Every structure is written in structure tokens, then in C-alpha cells.
Fold these 4 entries.
Entry 1:
Amino acid sequence: MIAESSNRVESPARATQRPLVSIKQLNKLYTARTRDVIHALSDIDLDIFRGDLITIVGPSGCGKSTLLKLLAGIVSPSSGMVEIVGRPLNGPSASLGVVFQSPVLLPWRTVLDNVLVPAEILGMDPAASRNRARSLLEMAGLSGFEGKYPHELSGGMQQRVGICRALVHRPAFLLMDEPFGALDAMTREAMNLELLRIWKEQQTTILVVTHSIPEAVFLADRVVVMTPRPGRLAHVYEIDLPRPRTVEMTFEPGFIELVQDMKRTVETGGRAVLEVE
Amino acid sequence: MTRVPSELRDEIPSFDTKVAGDRGPIDWTGLTSFRTAKSALEIGSIVALFAVVFFGLELVLRWTNTPTYVFPKPIAVVRTLANEFTGVYAHHLWVTMYEFLSGYAIGSAVGLLLAALITQKPFAEKVIAPYVLIMVTTPMIAFVPFLRLKMGFGSWPLIIAVALAAGPMVMINSATGFRRTDLAKIALARSYGASTLQIFRKIRFPLALPMIIVGFMVGSIFGLLTAVGGEMVAASEAGGLGERLVYYSSLARMDEFGAVIMIIAALGVSIYVLFYFIGKRWASWEA
């Protein structure tokens, strides 16, 4: 059983600490082809602290992917702002790493060279980033596969390469968009444990978008539940399950109760908005 | 996901759509997908077949007492080739290679550059496409006599003809390659703040490379055909392999004629083998 160790410090007195990422009154509007304005995100306020592992759940179309793309700096907000370490975010930032839904590896590059892509684009020292990439691959259990090509790897291994790539430039903040959505249930469970281990070893801050509520609870310190159209924060749950988390915890009554409660929030939140429409 | 309005989904591309392998208006990939012999048995059989044809032809020609001006005997052809190569054929091989390589270098460089530029602007591409197609389908050998009249008896008319034959081939295939826009991979590079040049160097160019190699290969074959054919139509004063073909056949010197044919065939096969290995080294990721 892979499990992270328990000596993680629970972020103390959040009120006094400066947030790593601060989302303030964020709105995102799209203009449809029919000239209707669609309110994808409405008044999002969220502070993310160093060392947090936050998950976002919500039904399809609640704007959780849009939120992630705003944080990644690929999409710009209609109003409001995103601050990273006190500085407003405009455009892609080197302090971010993004893991996509599918691994998006470059088939003409070896595993090692795939991991090095961000380092090359950001113009980092080649020798140092090579060492960094090697140690990340080793941590992800991929040592010996550096010279292989993506098509020679299984889906789970490819996604782990994607995670290593997102970490190679030592980002302060790792964004993951349904990172294990394309994997089977067994692999997914193993990858979640792996992710917790990586989070602990790399001491980073992670935001995961998922549509699996049990997965969201299992991973997170805080679960953000969103409602669709306009996408807004329905509720932020503090998860006080002890760490290290184990698969056995997911069978305990407390865990199941929490998941059911969250499910209700997602459902009622969604229905209320649909009725208005 | 079906109920999500398209506006909500995103203004940047989704990360899981894959563009099906678009091979452009003309699929040349058959040329690079030749199967090669693997086992000793296969290689042995290829050599055996050659021996049967070579010596079989020799025996049949001897038994039937066929005169050389009707059909040259293989052994005599090989002997002529060996005896005369350094004295006569090496010079003409060099003349043809010079015309071919110069024209090919100019044509393929211009073709590749134009393909990279033109694919950036879909409108420009649509306007230019029919003219490129005309250039691909028109045999450039036809222009050699005209160029000869205008430019005299040097090697430039043939260099230009080769460039005009190879360039559009390189261009049409490279353009197909550059048109493959894997938006997920480009979005990945963008998420790290990659510049347009970085996206070209790290994503677009490698993605296009297999098709570029196919273009260079087809271009080289058309270039060689045009060089030899052009020499047959109107050679420079230096000669060339094509000029020798016309000369020897007009004098019915069939041993020498056969020897020149063998050199041209060897040249063509070498080009194929060269590109086979280039493709294996740089485009093997695309099975």
C-alpha cells in the first residue's frame, strides 16, 4: 500500500498567512453565436494557500474547466482577477504547471525529452533540468523508461509522464484537469495514491478538477462544489480526514456520509439553477 | 457532456480531439511504406532471383544468337561498365549529379519555405493551390528546349527544370504536413508561454516532418527523372547520362547503353535507400 506520511503540517491559521493564489470576484462571460451572453463563471472568490490540495467538483458545464483555464492563464477573465503570490496573472506563468485530461505527449520525443519540454520553452539550464527530469521520473516509478517513446507506455504511465512534465520547472502551483478521467478504475485508484505521494514529496500546491465526488474527498484538504450556469461556488467543504489517506477510509461511514451530502449539494444546486432557466 | 452549450465548453481547443491522419490531396506515403527483407531467407531469395534473371537472360541471348544491337548481353554490359566507368561514365555521372543536386537543393528549399509560409494563411494557400497542382502535373522536361534557347548551353536550363520539378512536390507534401494542426499539443506549448517560433520549432515542424520527408523523397525522384530526361531532350555541352543514352542508342552501341541504364538505376535506388534511412531515423514515431 502506497501512502503518504502523516507528518504533514495542517496549514496553520489561514487568516494570517498570505494566499498563494487569490481569486477575486472572478466573472467569465461568453458571447454565443446567437448573441446570447452566457455566464460561465459568476463572482468566484477563492483563496488557495501554499501546500493546499484543493479539488473542484461539479456537474458538466458548471465552468470548472473554464476556471482551471483562467488559472492557467490560457483564457482571460471578463472581470475580477487572479493573483499569484500577490501579482495579478495575465497570460501563462512559469509558476504554474498544467496536467491535461489526456497526457498530450509529443510522440516524436522520448519520455525524458517530453518531460523537458517546459524547461526548453522557459529556457532553463539544460543540464540541471535534465537531472531534475530524471529524478522526477524516478519518483514517478518510471526510471528505465527515459529513452522509450510514448506509444510504448501504458495509459497510466503516460499520464505520470505528463505529471512529471508539469513539475519539471518547479511550479509553485500545479493545475490538474480531470487528470485520471481516461484511466480505468483500478489504475485511477493507484494514481490517486501516487498523486498524494508526489504532492507530499514535492511540497507543492495542487488544484484538481474532477467529476468524481469520492475522488475529490479522498484527495483534498478542501473540496469546492460548483453549480452550473452561472458557475458559482455552492459550498467549500473542509475535509478533516486524517493523513495519510488510505483506500480503506473510503469505506468508512463518515466518508460515505460526506460524499452523499456533497452529492446533494451538487444536485440541488444544479436543479435550482435549471428551474430558473 | 452533450447538454453543454458550445460556448461554455471553451474558446481554446479541447485536449482530447485527435485530427485523423490527413495525407493531403495526393497520398505519397506508399513510397515510404515499402516492406524490406528481414530474414536471411528473404535476402537469399532476392539475390537468387537476380542471378536467375541475369544469367537466364545471358543464356537465352546466347542460345538465340541475338545480336547486341537488338539486346545487349548482361555480362558484356557489366564488363563495359567496369572498364569504362572511370574513363567515360564518371564524368557524365558528375554532370547529371551536378544538375540534379543543384536544382534539387534550390527547388526543395524554396518549396519547403513556401509551404511553411503559405500554410499560415489559409486564404493564400487556397489561391496558390491550383497553380502548384499545375506545376506538379506538367512535365518540366517540356520546358528544357525553351530554356536551352533562352539560356544557352550551360547547365542552368537543366538546374531550373529540376528545381521546377522537385520544388512543387516538396511544397505540396510539406504543406500537407504543416496543415496538421494538433491543437492540443499547441495549447500545451502555449500554456508554458511558448512563442510562435518556439511552437513552430517544437510542435509544428516535428509534426510535419514525416510528410516533409515524403515530399523530399518524391521530389528527388521527380528531380532525377527531369535531369536525365532533360539531358535526353537537350543536353548541355558537358553531356550527362541522358545525353549518353541518346548518343549510344543512335549508334546502336547497346553495351554502353545498358551500362548507362545501370548507373541511372543505381542512382535511383541509392536515393530511395537514403530516404528510407532518413525516414527511419526522423519519422519512425509515425508507424
Entry 2:
Amino acid sequence: MILITDLCYRKDSLSYYEYVNPICEIAEDSGSEYDVIHYSELNGEIPDKYSSVIFCGTALKDNLFIEDLSLMQAVRSYNKPVIGICAGMQVIASAYGGKITDLKKFGMSRVRFSPGDPIFCDIPDQIIRSGITDKENGNNSFSSLSSGDICQKNNSSTYVDSGRPVYEFEGYEVHSRMTELPDSFIPLAMSGVGHSSPEPSEVFRTPVSFDSEIYPEIIRHREKPVYGILFHPEVRNVWLIRNFINLSGEGEF
Amino acid sequence: MFHTPNIDLTMMQAEAAGIPLLRYETAGEKEAELEDLKAAVDLAKVKYGIEGIVTGAVMSVYQASRVQKICDELDLFCFNPLWYVNQEKYMDSLIRSGFEVIIAGVYSCPFDEKWPGRVIDMKTLAELKKIRDKYHITLTGEGGEYESFVCDAPFFKKRIVIDESSCSYRNYNGTLSITSAHMEDK
């Protein structure tokens, strides 16, 4: 059974419908049983009965959750699969010593990754069709984690070239903060650079922001199956959450 | 960005709901219109002391991200409680809980001239589902396939009755213009 953790400013908040309910719908569609618990009721510990945990996002203006030190403790001592979305990523990174920094983003962003980590076990066809090779990609290549890999990071945020294909998709970001990468974590996906135009089939015409910064969009603990996602995968990237749910259900991490 | 059909009737809807209405004019120029929206929201903050905005965004990242940005700039909470709601469950609950909603405009195949003015009841919803399955429209019209007008809601103190309307329709595009309406006690 999955635990979906509500990080909103209080239990049964108006933000619940926006940030927690869509995750519940995805879990239900995936055929997975779940419970929803507000973070204030965890009391420093994630109950053992759950096979994995999803920490949901919350309203942009809501930063109450990050003050709960017992929440960080609960995350740090938990070794089963965890995924933190936006605010959830802040919780996870903070729990492992990452600092919170300011970074504002509203709208769709380009996200680049190389497959290899279990979270990318099932990639939608339309993403694979848009794939580019590392050679075309130049400095934006980076490594992906598979069991036993050690990832090297240098100061310029360019990562070891894995030789794997690089794929791109667009992720929905709404945040005013993010976290620095904790030492025990590696990036699995990075934000893209520059302007991308919407697909012709895009119904909602969303101009992608210009972005001069490259930052991690998906992070993972080097050893534990603990993930943080900066964008909101429940918007147009449900495949990531489904992969996580399916893998944790099968004990595949 | 903005809904336009029958926009003047929001005055009647606000009166029916017993909620103050703030009106602000915009030229509706893409992206520039957001400055107008921000000014209007700021005015609401000053005049009514609002602490947040609630939108009805279901899937539109275009609308939601822009409202989120404005709320952030004005230090307001932003709520989108219909965000990625299950559209079938939502439409079903609207009808069952007593909303009376009519189709106010159609802008996509296969809607013909009979659609503007139709009440969204269970029969209409069943047809919308079939159209969704065949033509891949969104059930809630979130993609701009159709627009709607609320005549009655559980929280309305009076219901709106349409006395006169006209429709201009051509090539799967038609807008219902409500030229006369009045309110009735419930």
C-alpha cells in the first residue's frame, strides 16, 4: 500500500484538491491501494505498513511544511521507495542536508534525461521519438544512475557522459524555491537551456520560458530509491509516477 | 486567456450569488492583458482585502501558470481546486448538485447550431462523452471547445432566466448572445 502524504498548510485544506487529489487519482488508476495522511499526523515516523511514499506539492505561498523537523527525521530514517514532488522534493533534499534556495518558475520547462534509472523504466513513445544523442547534445549530457554506478560531479554542472541517448520532455513547474543537491544525491534529469516551441498538436499553447539556468529537475539518493521531482509530474507526465508506483508495488527497487 | 461570451451578465450572476463583483476593462491583447488582470486583482486586494484567488482551471497550464505568477507578485495565495479533477465525476456532480448550466458557445467540430443554448443535463452529458470519445474534445470544454453560462447554482439566492437570446453560427463556431434575462426567486 502507498502512503500519499499531504504537505498542505493544514489537513483538509483547499489546496488538497489541487495537489493531493490528482495523485490519489493516479494511484487509483494504477490499481494501487493508498492512504492519505497529513504530514502533521506522522509524528516523526512513516508507518511500516506502507511499501512506498509519495510526498505531494502544495500552494506556492505555503512554506509551513518545511518547518516541521520531525518530518525531515521521518524521511531520513525511511529506507523504502519515496518520491517527493516539488514541496516534497524540498522535504527530501532538506532531510538529507540540502539547502533551500530561491528559484521562481511558472510554466512548462524543458527537462532532459538519459534512461537507465528504474524510474525511467517505461518511457512514453512520444518522448522516445524526440530523442537526441549525446554528441548532438554537447554540454548538456549527464549520467544516469544504475545500481553500482558512482557519479562524479564537477563544478560546472556538466556530468560524466554516459553514452546513452538523451531524451526531452516538458515538465510543469510552479515554485518559488528549490533545493541544492545534497551530497548523497545525484541528478537524473536537468532543465534544458533556451527556448522550445510547442508541438503542433498542443491544444493549450504554452510558451516555454527562456531560462539561463540549468538545474536538477529529478534527483535521486545514490543508494536508496529516494527521488525528488521539481516539476509536477501529475501534469502531463503521469508516466513517472506510474513507473514509481508499479516498481514499488512489485518490489523492484 | 479570458472568457468573453455574455460577460456583462456576470453582474447578474454576482447579484444572484450575493457576492461583490469587481469589473475591469481590458483590450484583451495577448500577454498585455495580464497586466490588466494583475491590476484588477491588486484592486480587489486593496478594496476587499482578499488573501487569495481561486480559479476554475482544470488542465490549462496556460491560464494557471499566469494566474500563479500574478498571485506570487501580489503575495496572494492561489487555489485551483479543480486542477486535474476527474472530469466525468466533476460534470456528474455539477448536474446532481443542482447547477443549471447552458452551452453559451461552441468552437469545435462536431458541434452544430443546435448546441448553443442547450442545458447541460444528463442527456447532454452523455452526448458530450460520446463526442469526447470520438473527437477527443475535453469533457469540460477546457480546451476551448465550448463555453458555458451558469443560470443557477446551489449557492445562488436567485436563479437566472433567459428571456431573449440570439445565436450566430457558422462552421462549428457559434456563440449564444443573451440579450435579455431576469432573476427569479428560488
Entry 3:
Amino acid sequence: MNPPRHILITGASRGLGRALAEHYVERGDAVVGCSRGPATLEHPQYSHVAADVTDEAAVQRLCDQVRERCGGLDVLLNNAGVGRMLPVALTPLATARRLVDVNFLGTFLLTHAAVRLLRHSPAGRIVNFTSIAVPLRLEGEAIYAAAKSAVETFTRVVAKELGPLGITCNAVGPSPIRTDLLRNVPEEKLQALIDRQAIRTWAEPQDVINIVDFFLKPESRHVTGQVLYLGGLG
Amino acid sequence: MDRHQIEDVVVSAIRIINQGRTPEHQLAESADAALYGAGSPLDSLGLVALLIEVEEGLREEGLAISLSDERAVSQKHSPFRSVPALVDYIAGRLGNPA
């Protein structure tokens, strides 16, 4: 059993983020979760900070609280994200901007602030979240996929910049999971998507947790700058 | 915080990152040392490590500032090109221009 770690998870109140938080507190890690709303998880190992990942001052306050409560961080999981299925010709600028702000700039802001907290960890880890919308060049998700492409490139470059500090940075691209992110996508579209996978079944949060666990292992110290998709895509 | 105290924080940070650097890549631990650019063994990635240590040293003195600047790795205008330039920059950020 590895020693407990200090883990910060964004978008921790719902879906995958909530499942990750539950998994790591049960393992004995100390988890700080953030979301725009209140906590949905009660556990002695869990604390929650309400913060919007697109708000620089809120992100700084979040990291200040992590520093006060934990002293530092071992893991940052940049899970917060928003999706919208809209053809480019029908996408308002405000929607496009929000997709880029949350999915990409939120990842940047958290990484920028958390590097300061991760630097003394014996096994500093950042895991970003991309999407199979990138390798599938998914029609109807141009802005979302472009923002996630940015996350992938960011992941690869950050891996090089933070390697000398002993921090790895990787990304996981889940195949469709039944979470709020997909609640507005028609069922037949999702089924068509799953039919394009090598593994033609819905993924479960546990499938993503398995990948994140792998990235977080101390033995994965040479695994960095990698993007791993579920479902046999990519 | 006066200029001399800021200088102490910067030189202490250099001392800390030197512990993780090879003998041929050591930085001068002095108040007039070159940091980033010609004449210094510090590359842009090493600069990140140094500035994070400086931020931490300032935080321990009760001053929370982020040393993010778009001129960071400019060869001519980097505020991080030398210890005196960095001290001036921090003093300016603290509203205490040198």
C-alpha cells in the first residue's frame, strides 16, 4: 500500500470528478475537491472549496486553501469540463468562449497555480482530461474538440517543462460514460459513437479511474506527456 | 520588505536550486549574479524552478506574489536576467521601487 497523498480534483461534485474523489478518499488519500457549487460528498478525508476554474482569483484562493490545509500537493486532476453539441454555424461566440475557458484555460490556470504546490512532492502528478471527440474529429463538437486538442498539446509541452521538477503530466480521454456531460446528447448519436469503438460498450467511471491510478503510481515516473484514450480509439 | 531582504530571499533560492544542479551548472550565489540569458547556465526550465523558490521564500516572509511575466524569457528585457534586476522587479511589484 502506498502512503496517502494530497489530491486536488476539479469538477468534483458530479460525474467522473465525484467518482474520482470517492475512489481516492476510500483509498485513504486526502482529497480537496472544487466545483462551482457546494460539496456532494461527505467524508473525513474530503474537503471542498467552491471555485470556478476560469476565475484566476478564485483559483489562487483555492490553492491558498490547499496550502493551508495540506501544506502541498501530490496530485492535480484537471477534471472540470463542459460540453456542448452544436454545429459551428450555430454556435454563439459566448458559448465557444465558455467551452475554451473551462476546458482549456481552466486547465492552464490550475496547472499554473498548482506547480507551486507540487514541487516538493516525491511523485508530483498532473492528469488532464481530454475526449475521444479529438481523434474522432466529431461533427457537432468542433469547439469542444478544439479545446480538448489544446489540452492534449498543453499536456505534452507541460510534461517537458515540469519534468525537471519531477512532475509528470498526462491526459486520459474517456469514451462515453453516462454522466451529466452527455445528458443533452441524443441516445442514437451516442450509440453511433460507441459503435465506432474497438470496445463497443459504455465505459464506467472505474475504467477511467484505472488509467488515472496508473498515471499516479510512483512506478510511472517515466510516463509523461502521454494521452491515453479508452475504447480503442486514437 | 527592503531591497536587502529581497536580495537575501533571492540568493537563498539560488542556494536551494544549486543543491539539485550538477557542479558544472551551478549558479553564482551572489548579489550581482547573472540569472537568465548570456553568461548564465540557467535555461528557461531552470528559471521556473528558481522563481518558484523565490516565490516560496517571499511567502515565508508573508508576501504572496506570483512572478509571472510575459517578458520572463526575453534576452534583453527579462526582469529575471540578473539578481539586481530580479530584486528591482520584486521591489516594484511590492510597491517599493528601488
Entry 4:
Amino acid sequence: MAMAGDRPLDAPRGREDPQAVVRGPDLTPAETRLLRARQRQRNRVMLVVLLGLVVLFFAITVSRLSQVKDPREWSRPGGIAPVQIAPLR
Amino acid sequence: MEASEATLSAREPSALGSATERAEARLGSLPGDWIALLKPRVMTLVVFTALVGLIVAPAPMDPVLAFAAVLAVTIGAGASGAINMWYDRDIDALMRRTATRPIPAGRISAEAAFGYGIALAVFSVLLMGLAANWVASAILALSIGFYVFVYTIWLKRRTPQNIVIGGAAGAFPPVIGWAAATGTVDAAPLLMFAIIFFWTPPHFWALSLFAHADYARAGVPMLPVVAGARETRRQILIYTAFLVPLTLAPVAIGFAGWIYGAAAVLLGVNFLRHALSVLTEPQDQAGASLVKDSAAKACFRFSITYLFALFGALAADHLLAAAGLLTI
């Protein structure tokens, strides 16, 4: 049986198997290196974003907690710390 | 506020079928493509006006929470842009200005862009609620929904009034900034909303005067495509004439001081001069420019500077007043 990868990308799918996966032409070694480099680059950015989110939510939590005067106001189950609106200038 | 991302320099049309582009698409996306999906140039104006809304609000905000609130507005605006690019991928491929965007160029799949936009939209609304308050969060959700459903899906391909009504989406940021700080909406943020609302048509129509061929090719009924260049020039002047007196209203209601007032007058006179140049530049019978739309390009460029400077002056007024150096 012929492999789907033997056909060019835009070739019609075989009638014998409507669910046959059509694979594009293989990458050259140089293209593979480029692909891997891009994947690494995306992964690094994702790492920075995730670390940034950790820092952001930590900072938000500390700031919100510093606004709460009476913990009983928000520490009930399901409670959300209220925002303390500052008095008008 | 989509227009701000437009480039004045003509870019090469996307050679979607070219071997180079096909090879690029097979290699996947770069981090920059995911940033491009957020329309960063549009975001700068959105972030700036939201920040001004926050600064001029009468209640000071914790700096960390203020940063998180502005970040939420930024991400929300980016999410709207990504969903807009997902929905408009068919017409983006037809327009020279947008053909090299990540989706029509094949570097990011439409499904991935849609998921990215939705995830960011939900995240931004939750972040605003947790960092500031749920009033600001609801207005942010409303602005994202307005941009996606009212402007992108409903109006953009149906009526030349698309950017007049749809422009409201870009006018929300100062209201969101104000609501983040105070938890309410007042007359002052609504006035800032109105200023951006009336600023959007001349800004966008100036762009569409020199990009009308793109819009015509994609079948987007922008005013120059439907009503002609001459009528568009007239409408730019009419909206600018409405805008300039409106920018003086904050001084009239005691919300801004003389620095803002002087800036509004000077900038307004300049904007009117640009709008008048657009109306009177050498043109043929149909209103098509005989001088490569130089007046429209200058007007478009100035409109961006105008909004930055106007809102900058408003922020400066309030910062100086807060420091006791000025009385409003």
C-alpha cells in the first residue's frame, strides 16, 4: 500500500481511504534545524510569560491583602477580597 | 482603532503561493507572529488612553493594581485584534496592507489564532476583575464584545458607517481606566469616550482615502468606496468640526485646566487645518487626489499625534494639580 506521504501536498486523497492523512513533503535538514530553533524560541517565550504571570499574581495578591482591614470580610468560603476604593480627592 | 496599525509605506502584496512563503509557513510561527496578532500599534493608543483615564480619576490606585489593570486593558485590546484577524482572514488576504499578517501568510492557523484570542479575552476580563473591580471588568468585556460582534462581524462588511458606530469600541479604554480606579462611571470619562468617538471617523477616513483600492478589492464598504472620495473629504471636515469644540468641554465643566485647554485649542486648530487641506487638495472630478493623497496621509499621521497630545495634556493637567502646582 502506498504511503500518503508519497503524494505531493495538494494531491487528492485516495478513494480507498477517505481518512488517509496527507503528509506534506519532508523538511530538509536545514529546514528541520530552523523548525527546531523556532520551537525553542517559542518555548523560551512561554517560560518567560509563565514566570511573569507567577510574579504578577503574587504581586496582585499582596497588594489586595494589604487593602483588607478585617480578614473576616473576605475569608469566608467563596469570599473574594473586596476592593477598597480610596476616598475622592 | 484599527487604523492606527496601518502603515503609510506600501508593502509588497503577499505572494501567498510563492515557494518562500510556503516554506516559511511549514517552519511554523515566530514569537513575533503571536505579538503581531495582537495588533501592537493599535494597543499603544488603547493603553495610553486607558492610563490617562486611570490618572485623571479622582481616586488614587495602588501602583501594582493599576499596572495589572492597564495590562488587562492591553491584553483585552490584543485579544480583540486577534479575534478580528481570525474573522477577517479572507479579506486580509486580499488587501495589500494586511496580506502579510500571520494568518493569511500561513504562519499561524486560523483555529490557533481564534483560540488564542478567546483565551486572552477571558484572561483579561478575569484579571481586571481580580486586580481592580468587576465594574471595570464588565466594561472591558463589553468593549471586547462590541469590537468583535458589532464592528467586526456585524458592521464592517455591511455599511460605510462601520467605523462611526464601531469606533465606540476604541473609545472605551479611558472609561475602563476610570472605572478601575473609582469603581464607577462619571460624566468625565463619558466625555473622554465622546472625544475618541468623534476622533475615530476623520482618523479612519483619512486612511481609507489612500487605501480605498485595498478596501474595494476586499469588498469592504468604506466611505470612499461607497460614497466617493469627495464626500469622504467633506465628512472628515464635518466630524473634525464637531470634535474640536467637544475637546473644550472638559475645561467648561471644570474637569481640566488651562494646560489642557491651550493644548486642545492649538491641536484643534491644526487638526481643522489638516481636514481643510484634505478637502481642498488638488483632485479630479470624482475627488481622487492628483498629488498622491499627500493631505490625507498628513491628516492621518497628525490625527494619531493629536490624540496622544490631547490626552497627554489632560494627564499633565491632573498630575500637576495633584502635585499642587496647578489649580483646575
